[in-house]
Batch of 4 targets.
Target 1
Amino acid sequence: MFEAAFLQESLATLEGVYPLVASFLTHRIAEHPLLGLEALKKLAARMRPDTLEHNAAVDLPLGISNAETPQNGLSVHETIDRIEECGSWVLLKYIEQDPAYRDLMHGVLGEIAPIVARRTGAMMRFEGFIFISSPRAVTPLHFDPEYNILFQARGSKTMTLFPTADPDIVTPEFFEAYFAGGPRNLPWCDEWQARARAISIGPGEAIYVPILAPHWVQTHDEVSISLSLTWRSEWSFHHADACRFNRRLRRVGLSPAAPRLYPANNRMKSYGHRALARLGR
């Protein structure tokens, strides 16, 4: 049985920044046996094939589209076996499908649940992801619709983050397309680098990543293993549905205002989308 994942100092840090500001944290699960490479090979063999992703990941443009991301010619299991030299990236999605990893995820997130509840309400839709990456692997610029803490277990990486929902980087139309089923990778512009904040982490270190904050990632000179634990809130679901409502308005020739950011809410547009969706069904 492992001790608590977070020291009180990191819990205090998270309380001070959540939910709007990215932050460096520390943790105590880097040596957890479930996060070793051999354990992850066994996990990948147990997981549903549709929850495994892999691709070539070295020298990728930061603004590459999802459709242009190159394959590496290997199976996902071959990629993990050759991760030190194949220049690739493997993603194990929804690790909560495995009971042992689900218990780990719920234990860690349970430690921060009181902090989250005081700001954005009860934590909803827990999901877990594990990244196994070759040296110098790149994850292109994208955003996530969840709150996220990225825990580093092996190797090191740098995440470069941008302001939450920066309208120059993520336009309202891009959000609307994403929440209608579109891709999440974003185009890149060199001018945006002036707005960036880079946070580097190694084993025992973590990053709190605010919801909707654009970011890209590069591993350093060794194999990297990271655990990403995410959750949603009622606010996040209202924001997503407000984007879908705006897409409906734009299709009839209107120019709706972008959904408002926390702590403002988007309930009226959200309820409008949900009502129209029910009518459509």
Target 2
Amino acid sequence: MTDNDKGLKDSPTGSFRFYLQGMGVSSFAHGLQIILFPWLLVGVLNETAERVGIAQMALMLPQLLFVLWGGVLSDNRHPGQHLFRLYLLYNLPCLMLLGALWTGQLSYSAMLLYGFCFGTITAFVQPARESLLSRVVDTQLQQAVARASFVQFAAQSAGIFLAGYMDHIGLLPLISFQLALLVISGWLLRKSLGYLPEGSMGRRGSTWVDMMSGLKLVWHHRRLFQLMMVVAATGFLGFGLYLVAMPLLTREVYQQGASFFASIQFTFMLGVIISNVIIIRLVGRFRQSGRVLLLSLLVRGLFLMMIALHPPVWLLFVLVLLWGGASGVAMMLGRSLTHEESPQEYRARVVSVYQLSLFGAATVGAWLSGHAIASVGVLMAIGALGALTVLAAAIAIKFSDLWKPLSYETQER
């Protein structure tokens, strides 16, 4: 990333290029995880919808429990060094899963333990990685977020594509490769940020007080609070459903296997990538980010309702592509609004509230989706949650400050 690339400039101590490389390698590993974890449950262990929902909840529950603590630790430490140590810890759950597969002892309880350990590390990684982004660029934060999102989801798509060949490659080589990628990404993220003076990092005080300070800032900041409510709706009604319903839709509705599931995931990520390319190349910067965010929530609900009508395979993939495109816009805007609205010294803590809103709600959403699918079937559950998404978007459009036009000064901030 050069200094004259669309106005994006490295910070005096940071390298956006190394950040993007670290993000890309990490996201490739996460793309493998997106396929491997649910398919081990659905396709290998042949678990029920309720148990798949519980396992996905175990993967995301640490976000609810630890992400605020992770934000405090990130504000009080050099984020690059902190991330490198955290990425090394991914060795523990990955080696545990490798051992279970190697010895033929893979079980539902082993998957729960793996998911909880992996999710716990991720709860500390995500706020630190988001905080690092704002330290490696000086200008055009929305553009930086869009570019980071593009790299993230392009690399995830590559990981998903590779995981689709698990029947040919084998689970052990894929998980070993994932482990190596995680270590390399931690090293690259460490290189992206140089020395930081002690005063540029947060004051080390009471952890509890620091955790509450992020929540209080969001609570008293009207637009941030409403943004977190929209993000929570996305996690509860969309993300949780996506994690549980897609592998079950593959197995129970379309009677397909791992390659079909990987194709659905790849198509979703392709939609995310296309939307980010459009933002980077054509749009540049949304002047009314809140309005676009709420409209994306509305259309995502409509796409879910259409998927619930059991479309033919070709139309299913078109709808998943469009769903991914709308989700890509929402993810980019949610992240950039969080960065832009929060002060630098509190940024990791505010980002941790963002992660709590998204993944905490998704934890409950995954559990609810599993039970809803078991009760009324995959398609009916998708349709019901799609209708609730449309309702939530309509309420936010009617009453939220995010829909109100921003002043020129606020847009230029």
Target 3
Amino acid sequence: MEEEKALKELTYAQQSLSQGFISKALNDKKTKINYLGFYGIVKEYPFTKAGNISKFYAGICYYKLGNYKESINMMKNFSSKDEILYAIKYGIIGDAFSQIRNKNEALKNYVQAAIIRENEITTPLYYYKAALIAFSMKKYKYSQFLLKKIEKKYPFFLYKETVSKYLMFIENKL
């Protein structure tokens, strides 16, 4: 019964999100609407499947609204057996830490996101983000290590030309 109510609320929130109404989809009690939103579902139905996935959605909404600390909190409380979602969770946590200029935590979370399950989409993306953060921290050897990993294992990566440019730049630095 609780799961059904939570799923119904989740549907409304997802519809708002798909229409681009992020605040309305989140509804952390600042908006007067007649459904819970992701935040409300997390609070009302925390132990349901809908409550759990709402943590993920709420984390995305908070990130898009610029509330990075709340995004991190929501994402840290989300759990999933789906390895791609789990990788995205850590990627968003990395993005949020990057936004609040905590480069060490961003780097740690990007690497975590990359290694959860090797695949052609999330793995090279999060290695790339980790490499850029490492580069900005002047950790050139580590950045080079990550970029070479992308170059060898993911030849069809979207930003492969940029990877090559960073590698050339690093080799001139070292």
Target 4
Amino acid sequence: MTFKHLILAAAALCGLALGSAHAATSADAGLIQRGAYLARAGDCIACHTARNGKPFAGGLAIQTPIGRIYSTNITPDRENGIGKWTYQDFAALMRHGESKAGYAVYPAMPYPSYSRVNDDDMQALYAYFEHGVEPVAQANRKNDIPWPLSMRWPLKIWRWAFAPTPEPFADVTATDASARHGAYLVEGLGHCGSCHTARGVTLQEKALTGDGNSIYLAGGGAVDGWVAPSLRNEHGGGLAGWSEAEIVEFLHTGRNTHTASFGAMNDVIADSTQFMTQRDLQSIALYLKALTPQHANATPYVYDSHVAGQLYAGHVPAVPGAQLYLDRCAACHKSNGKGNGRAFPALAGNPVLQTSNPTSAIHIVLSGGAQPATNTAPSTLTMAPYADILTDQQVADVVSFIQTSWGNAGGKASADQVAKLRKGAVPVEARGFPMAEPELHHAAPADQASGTRG
């Protein structure tokens, strides 16, 4: 676990119990079930479960600029978890970042977002964690943060400055009840802004809601090799080219005709959004499509068949990276860049490739990629890493070719950028996905199979 979990995934305090839940004693079964669903929406298991550890027992290492912190045990164990917490204790943590022990928690937990959760849903979450999760007697680990950075009182100043006392949820930008419900999910439990909103120098989100600004969900910065793209209804990397149905499909399956999920978003799809109801997903899509562009002058993507025609005819353009793409990438993504259905994502028109920042594309080439297995799309399709096969310059060349071909308007990559990202590249198999073999096609372009050419 790295710093991306501070910026991109953020810790959560709710999730799905994967083990046997202990019997409810004082809480209504329906309330517990509602809490379990809301816990899915919050994707808490992503941060409060260590790899190969017990659900919600904590212990996951989160690297931050001041040192390593470890997620805490949030099972109902009375000695190590939250089994002695009252509802008021729970709500104070969720809404104010204040622990039962009286100290402020690190903003790795997105409590500024959770503060928007209404009382009924907060009660359901509390019931679930107290009566629907199996207690685990696992002690919390001490954070590896040196003194004086380990002092907690500065966190109260941060909270005062950037997480003021929450107000009841009220979205004024949404035009109907469904869109308002989508705003409630996105801005609250979904904490989408934790990744997709730019942050200031003190790591605070520059906007917590879509009310009266175009910063919220307009894209986050590059962290640990990934860039969270814009979720606003805009061209040049946003969702302007997506229909509401395509947004729902992506959240439900991790893929659509435009792209496939990668990086931290894989966990969000696998652990959270794939389990949400169609009503909730449709509400989210409606809200996102209602967000006005931050970059109103960005032009729509238009497919350019020039490079595709050259590659198909066997005339490799005299452009760095073109031959590399044909040899190593075209078998899956095709010479026309349109991919192969939902098995291998399209590169032509892919929103991730329309911005000036090539970080995500570089990371995928170096580390490989994987589409998460979901209930409706159970195949885990992977792309093997090329870090041990291609030089920094070769990676830069093929990424630059991808970002500027077929009408893509992305920026070119440099060998220096690749060298910096290579230091933190984690192979896809180390992230828990099976590894596919790299493509090693070296046939002349004219001999490529028609399925490869496009």
